[in-house]
Design a protein that fits this description.
The chain has 442 residues and is an alpha/beta fold. The protein folds into 2 domains: 196 residues, NAD(P)-binding Rossmann-like Domain (Rossmann fold), CATH 3.40.50; 217 residues, NAD(P)-binding Rossmann-like Domain (Rossmann fold, 3-Layer(aba) Sandwich). It is 44% helix and 14% strand. A 6-stranded parallel β-sheet has the order 3-2-1-4-5-6, sandwiched between helices. A 6-stranded parallel β-sheet has the order 11-10-9-12-13-14. It has a two-stranded parallel ribbon with strand order 7-8. Strand 13, helix 19 and strand 14 form a beta-alpha-beta unit. Helix 1 crosses helix 3, helix 10 crosses helix 12 and helix 10 packs parallel to helix 13. It is elongated. The structure holds uridine-5'-diphosphate-xylopyranose (UDX). Uridine-5'-diphosphate-xylopyranose binds next to helix 10.
């Protein structure tokens, strides 16, 4: 059955969720305090790059199932199913997550709930947040106990946001186990098309649902740092980490995915989520268990420094007077997101140490320029590499992995390439006369 849904927050998560709920056949209102952003979305324009999402957005605006508003009152009058999809960034100067946007949605929305409603939290929050917010909703809502809050974490990846939302690996729903209410029935209705595809649906208590999300991200981060630690050992022994990852990945208990060694993880989620996890565990008195995640974080950050050292060595021992081409600024391919991007961090460090750095990325140039205005930005691969002493591939865009080493050789001053994502064929580049350096490879 089609439901009337409001989605609060129209950033990455919210815009995707709103558009995909409309795609499932629901009537959806996207709500945000940023009216400029709403204007763009209503015109079918996305403020970020996400393959496939513009089509879903436009299709559902045109068929009338998706609209946008800054008005909470309109949302409360229109919908009885509400999703909270605002950001929970890292607090300035602390490891913990900043919950002010989530709190603000609940404080503004709950007093307007004058008929039975369910609020589903989607944002990533520390355990205990949902129970606290559930209490607030019942306190503030005129309908009292007929307003309830459940937690429905989101696992979408940038670059695959539409697919991950329409065909998730699993749907997790945390409900108040003391007073389960209607949340499960409403969620079954909202996600009926997915449940028909037999996508696993797990109903848990609130804290478990919150922790499922944080643990999933912590595990993924651990997997990446594990292989990067192995890469350090490979470097010391002359072994090849890519071949090693293929070999251990055949063991179904281990699995090959998320075992790509390189310059490590970045983005708007993994780094801040593991830090929030460490902070939360500390507050709960379970901090010791999270020495592990601190190590995961430091292995990850160490990759960036190692990459700078590798580039310095490749430039002949000093960056002074060296020209370095950096291909990639986004934290991963198929995204224009540069939040905590290892690529930009490395480019920035190298430039600060005296090199002339020229950066090119197929989609993230505008965001990169905003974050690091002092770097030099090129209009294409060729001009980024013009006269370069060292070329560095720091984001594995298809456009870079398919580069022709013979063609590129015409632009550079010196044929030295550093493959920060182990995404090129070492033989192919060496055969074309390049000095190739990967990560955790001889
Ligand atoms: C992540 C989680 O995957 C997703 O489930 C959650 O909802 C949000 O956080 P995302 O931030 O889009 O998604 O990126 P992801 O694809 O997980 O990649 C994270 C980072 O890890 C990227 O910088 C990527 O380059 C890096 N990475 C990934 C590696 O270094 N090696 C790998 O093997 C995989």
């Amino acid at each position: 059955m089609s439901r009337k849904i409001a989605v609060f927050g129209t950033g990455y998560l919210g815009a995707t969720h709103a558009a995909c709920m409309a795609e499932l056949g629901h009537d959806v209102l996207g709500v945000d305090v940023d009216e400029a952003k709403l204007g763009k979305l209503a015109a079918g324009e996305l403020p970020f790059y996400e393959p496939g999402l513009p089509e879903v957005l436009r299709r559902n605006i045109e068929n009338g199932r998706l609209r946008f508003t800054p008005s909470y009152q309109e949302a409360a009058d229109f919908a009885d199913v509400h999703f909270v999809a605002v950001g929970t960034p890292q607090k300035h100067g602390e490891l913990a997550a900043d919950l002010r946007y989530v709190d603000a949605v609940i404080e503004s929305l709950a007093p307007l709930l004058s008929r039975p409603s369910v609020i589903f939290g989607k944002s990533t929050v520390p355990a205990g947040t949902a129970a606290r917010l559930n209490g607030r909703v019942r306190e503030l809502a005129p309908v009292r106990d007929q307003a309830e809050l459940a937690w429905n974490p989101e696992f979408l990846r940038e670059g695959f946001a539409v697919k991950d939302t329409l065909h998730p690996d699993r749907i997790v729903l945390g409900v108040d186990s003391a007073r389960p209410g209607n949340a499960e029935a409403v969620a079954r209705d909202v996600y009926a098309p997915q449940l028909e595809q037999n996508i696993p649906f797990l109903v848990t208590d609130l804290a478990t649902a919150e922790l499922v999300k944080t643990s999933a991200n912590a595990f993924l981060a651990t997997k990446i740092s594990f292989i990067n630690a192995i890469a350090e050992v490979c470097e010391a022994t002359g072994a090849d980490v890519s071949v090693l990852a293929d070999a251990i990945g055949h063991d179904a208990r281990i699995g090959r995915r998320f075992l790509n060694a390189g310059i490590g993880f970045g983005g708007g989620c993994l780094p801040k989520d593991i830090r929030a996890f460490i902070a939360m565990a500390g507050e709960l008195g379970a901090g010791q268990a999270f020495a592990l995640l601190r190590e995961v974080d430091s292995i990850n950050m160490r990759r960036r420094n190692k990459m700078v050292e590798l580039a310095r060595e490749a430039a002949g021992g000093s960056f002074i007077g060296a020209r370095i081409a950096v291909l990639g600024a986004a934290f991963k391919p198929d995204s224009d997101d540069v939040r905590d991007s290892p690529a930009l961090n490395i480019a920035g460090q190298i430039q600060l140490q005296g090199a002339a750095v020229s950066v090119y990325d197929p989609e993230a140039m505008q965001n990169a320029r905003q974050l690091f205005p002092t770097l030099q930005y090129a209009t294409d691969v060729c001009s980024a590499c013009s006269g370069a002493d060292v070329v560095m591939i720091l984001t594995e865009w298809g456009q870079f992995t398919s580069l022709d080493p013979y063609e590129l050789a015409k632009s550079v001053r010196q044929r030295t390439i550093i493959d920060g994502r182990n995404c090129l064929s070492p033989e192919g580049w060496r055969n074309a006369g390049w000095t190739y350096r990967g990560i955790g490879k001889p």
